[in-house]
Write a structure and sequence with these properties.
This is chitinase. Belongs to the glycosyl hydrolase 18 family. GO terms for molecular function: chitin binding; endochitinase activity. It catalyses: Random endo-hydrolysis of N-acetyl-beta-D-glucosaminide (1->4)-beta-linkages in chitin and chitodextrins. With 476 residues, this protein is of the alpha/beta class. The chain has one domain: TIM Barrel, CATH 3.20.20. It has an 8-stranded parallel β-barrel, surrounded by 6 helices. The longest helix is centred in the C-terminal third of the chain and has 34 residues. It is globular.
């Protein structure tokens, strides 16, 4: 009788400990880790838009665009070295209307160690400011984007043989390390079937050098991020050997925009989630499903535009001659681009089309512009969750309206639909409590609160399990 009682208590004890262990594992397994990224372009500096203008609580990654390829040195160079590395400017500024970076003076005093001083902290170059931002938000990952639009010829030239690939990749990795970047983003736009093998050789060489640096510096495997920008067009995607590439690539950044533009015969959505009523059938979903047959879905990041494209016609599918007439907005005729913070234009009516997953605004006398509205951003966030993708990114940070009082920020709406800042990939994230996030202090508090709740839940679970074990021992 006693032996049966002992056996029963032992079994209960083992079962209770197993439940305790499962509870901790479940807590880890259910943790959501979405990527929320933006491209920051070096030329945004001339528009008085700086990296610090991006609300850090809403992002996990920044891509600095672009390092220019220099075939003569088999390396890269800054488009404007002074702006990138030498220009001195305040970490905080109020010149750009959408600046929602840091708003608490104490932040700068703490960062500089000069609490009580009347001087603000300065940044030395855009790269210097990015480094400061990593101090403000621990775990923020910043990658150096290399290449850019129409760079296929340059990449092809710089990878003409094994020796060049070795020299170029060595120099790229050294630049990454020297300037404190957390990874490289290769924007080879776009390889052809003839040079697809060169892309593979470059990515392989970069990955091997990443691993070497990680071992030498005692870092965990995959500490450095290697991402690759992808076109949306299926015929272009056929040029990539994804079976091999995904061995080396951390994330594939799918550019979900520019399906139409001034080069098109008719006006149309340029960032539609699903096929529109035209013969092309082009859409984000079409390309995503093509890719998910070839790569791990957790390596795919959906790209979205912080801009629209305009036409001087009245409705989708109309023929056009030039850009729409938007008062106060300068547009280049070969681009017809309008930044999102200028949308919808005054006098235009905004229309959200959930069937295609995008939006447009029109004025019967001045034209039409296609872009993503807050509702479209939320629909794409829901799509990212539904498809199990890694997250989303925006081209580029200058376009959004982070400070907009009526919450029209695409970034804010996307992150909110994902589940808020607590749904983002945290890494070793610690947000400075004095950091202003662009709306109020709630997201920063929610991150701190989430960490507090997780610790509290762990402590409660442990205490409860210990109590159960103690009672069972008493019963013995």
């Amino acid at each position: 009788m006693l032996s049966k009682r002992i056996l029963r208590v032992v079994l209960l004890l083992v079962f209770s400990l197993k439940i305790c262990a499962l509870d901790f594992d479940d807590l880890k397994d259910t943790k959501v880790n979405f990527i929320s990224a933006v491209y920051y372009t070096e030329w945004s500096f001339y528009n008085k838009h700086y990296p610090i203008d991006v609300p850090l609580s809403q992002i996990t990654n920044i891509y600095y665009a672009f390092a220019k390829i220099d075939p003569s040195s088999e390396s890269t160079k800054w488009a404007d070295k002074n702006v990138a590395l030498e220009e001195s400017f305040p970490l905080y500024h109020a010149e750009f209307p959408n600046s929602c970076g840091a708003r608490d003076e104490q932040l700068y005093f703490e960062l500089s160690g000069s609490k009580g001083s009347n001087e603000f902290v300065n940044s030395t170059g855009l790269i210097g400011q990015l480094s400061q931002m990593k101090e403000l938000k621990k775990g923020l990952k910043i990658s150096l984007a290399v290449g850019g639009e129409n760079t296929n010829t340059l990449f092809n030239k710089i990878t003409s043989d094994d020796a060049q690939i070795e020299n170029f990749s060595t120099n790229l990795v050294q630049t990454m390390v020297d300037y404190g970047f957390d990874g490289l983003d290769i924007d080879w736009e776009f390889p052809t079937t003839e040079n697809a093998s060169k892309l593979i050789a470059l990515m392989k060489s970069l990955k091997e050098k990443f691993e070497s640096h990680e071992r030498m510096n005692g870092l965990e495997t995959n500490s450095y991020l290697l991402s690759l920008a992808l076109p949306l067009d299926i015929s272009s995607l056929l040029c990539y050997d994804f079976e091999i590439l995904q061995k080396y690539v951390s994330y594939f950044n799918l550019m979900g925009y520019d399906m139409t533009g001034p080069w098109s015969e008719k006006s149309g959505y340029h960032s539609n989630l699903y096929p529109a009523d035209d013969s092309s059938g082009a859409s984000i979903d079409t390309s995503v499903r093509f890719l998910l047959e070839r790569i791990d879905r957790k390596k795919l990041i959906l790209g979205m535009p912080n801009y629209g494209r305009s036409y001087d016609c009245m409705k989708p599918g109309d023929k056009f001659h030039t850009c729409a007439n938007i008062a106060g907005v300068e547009q280049k005729k070969k681009q017809c681009i309008i930044n999102y913070h200028d949308l919808p234009p005054d006098g235009f009516i905004e229309v959200y089309n959930s069937t295609v997953g995008s939006s447009y605004a029109y004025n019967q006398n001045r034209g039409i512009v296609f872009y993503d509205s807050p509702l479209a951003a939320r629909q794409k966030a829901a799509y990212v969750k539904q498809m199990g993708l890694a997250g989303g990114f925006w081209w580029d940070s200058y376009g959004d309206s982070y400070c907009n009082s009526n919450n029209r920020s695409l970034l804010h709406n996307f992150v909110d639909e994902l589940g808020g800042t607590s749904a983002l990939k945290l890494n070793d994230e610690v947000i400075n409590e004095n950091f202003y996030n662009g709306q109020d202090d709630e997201p920063a508090r929610s991150c701190a609160m989430r960490r507090h709740l997780v610790r509290t839940k762990e402590l409660f679970n442990f205490t409860l399990c210990a109590l159960i074990v103690f009672i069972e021992l008493l019963l013995l």
